[in-house]
Amino acid sequence: MAQTLDRSPAGAGTPAAAPATARLGRRFGRAAGRQHHAGPFTYLLLVAAAFVSLFPLYWNVVAASHSGERVVEAPAPLLPGKRLLDNLSFAWNQVDMGEALINTTVVASLVALSTVLFSTLAGFAFAKLPFRGRGLLLSLVVATMTIPPQLSVIPLYQIITDLGWFDQLQSVVLPSLVAAFGVFFMRQFLVEALPVELVEAARMDGAHSLRIIWHVVFPVARPAMAVLGMLVFVQAWNDFFWPFIALTPDGNPTLQVALAGLGAGNHTVDHAVVLTGALISTVPLLLVFAFLGKHIVGGITAGAVKS
Hints:
The protein is an all-alpha fold. It has helices at 17-33, 40-64, 68-71, 84-94, 97-128, 134-143, 153-163, 170-173, 180-193, 196-204, 209-238, 241-246, 255-259, 271-302, and strands at 264-265, 268-269. The chain has a two-stranded antiparallel sheet with strand order 1-2. The relative contact order is 0.12.
């Protein structure tokens, strides 16, 4: 007579094991439904992290409210002074901070929008469209990330000079329309987030490529597009190396180029004025995160839960 193999765990069917299994199930059930509250140690770590993160910004405000001589004295001031409005007025008028702010907003917005758009299109092509040489082209795109930007300064400067774009905003925007990191980032996201069956179903319904991109790819890629746009916008806002070469403080400067001309005079540098200009350049980014932070976090978490 054939014997049936018992594959259940040893003792699982015994009467003594049943109460233990029931108690274990009730314990995990209560733990799953219970909300875990943070303890004092967690709040202490959060307060310490917030202090370390916010102290540089606080000291920037403190330094901007003192004179240049007081800022470089030891010990450094830790409480705000009375010269904040005077330093703000002086920094705003010494260089054209208003024009620099507008130029930086235009440059950072155009670079972020173009990078997100082109990176999403290229990432979709590398992720879901089969074509010959796809792996080789992707490898070449990723390999460009290893090239230092300093190597391209001389030929890029020669190109913008021949085109008559020196000291023009397009000389800063056009070289940054797309980034290899953005292409690789969007490709990696769409490989996992966009099912190929969804694209094939849209094609079977008669949708052309542009309609698939607009109605299928963009909604799926929205969380990654929000993250990439935020990163590129901040990078373009704080970019100094190439704008300092292509632009001049007296022409069409961005904020970082304008800051290079702050506080200089009589062979000395007024550090309080320089830090005041840095404060002016930081406030718009803080306002953007204050008003759009909820939408950015919402877009990021939208793709974190699978239905």
